[in-house]
Design goal:
about 60% helix, mainly alpha
Length: about 150
């Protein structure tokens, strides 16, 4: 039995738009974050303006050459890269709020945490690490010391 499969190019574009989208669709992400998704390259520049170095961004978001290519070609970030940028934005904003000062928050993100046994910024390389950092920020915010 053979299936009659059509490529994406063969399918009418309108039918793709009418197709049911998954629960975690880009539209829902855009509504939650208030940002276009996937993110434009400019979001990298915004992180740099907030004090993140190129080396930090290359370690978390994407390699130097990949980001340079995206900038040169005017490409948006990939979904995975966009997710990492949102992760950094979220944790950075949360740290700013918890510490009440951007400089203190940036310093905390770069200093080894006794509780986490790691530098919080390094943990942002994974979603699991980011959750640990977020939990630690909640503990600090609520005065719960371990």
């Amino acid at each position: 039995m053979t299936r009659n499969r059509r490529t994406r190019d063969e399918v009418d574009a309108g039918s793709w738009e009418q197709a049911e989208t998954p629960r975690g669709s880009f539209q829902e992400i855009e509504q939650l974050t208030g940002q276009r998704f996937p993110l434009p390259y400019a979001s990298i520049d915004e992180l740099r303006a907030r004090g993140f170095t190129g080396e930090e961004l290359y370690a978390i978001v994407a390699p130097r050459r990949t980001l340079a290519r995206r900038k040169e070609r005017g490409e948006d970030l990939t979904v995975a890269e966009s997710d990492r940028v949102l992760r950094i934005q979220h944790i950075s904003g949360m740290a700013d709020r918890v510490f009440g000062n951007h400089e203190k928050a940036q310093r905390w993100l770069r200093e080894r945490s006794r509780v986490l046994n790691e530098v919080p910024l390094v943990l942002l390389q994974s979603e699991t690490g980011a959750r640990l950092v977020e939990e630690e920020l909640h503990r600090i915010d609520y005065g719960i010391y371990v």
